Structure formats: C-alpha cells, structure tokens
Amino acid sequence: MHKLLAILLTLAVTSGVLSFRYLAEIGILKDYVTLKTSDKLTVEERLEQFGTAATVRLALHFQQADVPFPPAAIALLAFKDSKRLELYASNRQGAWRYVRHYPIQAASGAPGPKLREGDRQVPEGIYGVEYLNPNSLFHVSMKLSYPNAFDLAMAQAEGRADPGSDIMIHGKAKSIGCLAMGDAAAEELFALTAWVGKENVRVVIAPTDFRLNGSKPDLTNLPAWADRLYQQLRAELIQYPGENIPHPPTATTAYNTPPP
C-alpha cells in the first residue's frame, strides 16, 4: 500500500494533474494506509475513549430540550442547501423535540437524489442506520440504509443496475458522497446511536428544509419521480418542530417505524 501511494504521487506529478481534488484523494489513501496498520477498536472501546466527553457536550442541549438523556430515539435531519444537520430526540410523551444542530463540514455533489455508484451524490430520502464503524477511515462512522425500497424501485424502473452503496455519516471534513461532520460531531452522533440502538435512529436527507420552503427546489435534470420523493420528505419533516418552527399540535411519531 505504501508503494501504491508513492506510485500515485509520482504519476500525479509527472502527468501534471496534481489538482486539489487529486491531492484530497491521495490524502484519503494515506489515511487508509494508516488505518490498515493500526489496531482495531470495538464500539465499546470507542465509547470509553470519547463517550464521557460527548455526554458532557450533549447534556445541556438535552436539558434545554426537556428530553431525558440518553433518549429513547433520535432523528437526524440533513439539509443540503444550508449544510446543516439537526438532531431531534423523543421526549417522555414520544414527541420529537429539537436538541441541537451541527454544520455539515463537507458533502460532495449537488441538490438532487443519488442515482448511481460513482456519481458522488449524497442521497435524498428517509433512512435507518445499518451499523456503526468504530474503525472508519474518517474517524468513526454510521452506515445508512441506502438504497432504501424507494431508491431500489426507482432504479429498477429506470434500468439502473447499480444505484450505489456505502453512504455514511462520518468524521473529518472530506466527503465522497457522504456527510462529513468533523470528529467531535461524529463522536456525539456515534455515541448517541450506540446508546439508543441503531433501530431507534431515523435519518432524513433533503435538498432543502421543506418546513421553511414548501416549493420544489429550482433544479434542472431532476428525475420524473423527484416530486414523489419530495412529497414524502415534506410529510416526514412536518413531524419535527425546528429551532425556529412551532411545535405541531400532534408531534408524535412511532420512532421505531422503519424507513420506506
């Protein structure tokens, strides 16, 4: 692997293609080399490393939201246009309450759904968490359940054989189709997911916050089914009273309902 890294650097220099993007991918490969030569850690060992610090950082936010800590369930709402991820938790009555938000450090691609492997798009939809990776190339990560049933149905209808995979929420500030949150935020989200159980985590990724902007994003080249997807996202998002959005009269939801 070290030889491969040296070869790639040599080729980049001699061919005159040492762009910032190429340098970023060389950096990712270098991190991969380091990861492969380091010891493996378990989820529990990661929590021993940063669980207490994450608790200290999160406790006041949960207290202000009047939600027990750790909560019964959490939801993560990610908005591409504002590069913002909002954390919600269910209170004692099972209603969703806004806890805090994080800036998304990096997310490649543009507004619009992911269509195929290698398009560098962050998907849009409603997802669960399949597993936690305590030895991620990007510090720690959470693998999302992309593609979901809707993604697969649309891919099949359009004859797309490979809609992509391995979409993560992770640390660091580099992204190739994932949500890069920085290490501290990734630690908090990783720890919360471990504490509440991955089956009690819901992730919503949208091009914009439809609670504030109800219209379809002004995008070109959207697939014909984008309207259906965005209707699903609007219906999902109204369950979550935002930082500056009033609580709905019936803000309850079954937090263990699987994403579509």
Written account of the structure:
The protein is of the alpha+beta class and 260 residues long. It has two domains: 35 residues, no CATH class; 195 residues, L,D-transpeptidase catalytic domain-like, CATH 2.40.440. The strands form two sheets. Strands 3-2-1-9-4 form a five-stranded mixed beta sheet, sandwiched between helices. The longest helix has 23 residues.
What labels would you give this structure?
260 residues; alpha+beta; 2 domains; 5-stranded mixed sheet; 4-stranded mixed sheet; 6 helices; 35% helix; disordered N terminus
Give me the secondary-structure topology.
Layout: H1 2-15, H2 20-36, H3 43-65, E1 74-79, E2 84-90, E3 96-103, E4 125-127, E5 129-136, E6 139-144, H4 149-158, E7 168-170, E8 179-180, H5 183-196, E9 201-206, H6 226-237
Parallel strand pairs: 1-9, 7-8
Antiparallel strand pairs: 1-2, 2-3, 4-9, 5-6, 6-7
Helix pairs in contact: 1-2, 3-5
Short description:
The protein contains six helices and nine strands, in the order αααββββββαββαβα.
Contiguous helical run count: 6
If you consult CATH, what is the topology of the largest domain?
L,D-transpeptidase catalytic domain-like
What fraction strand? 15-25%
The profile of the biggest β sheet is:
5 strands, mixed
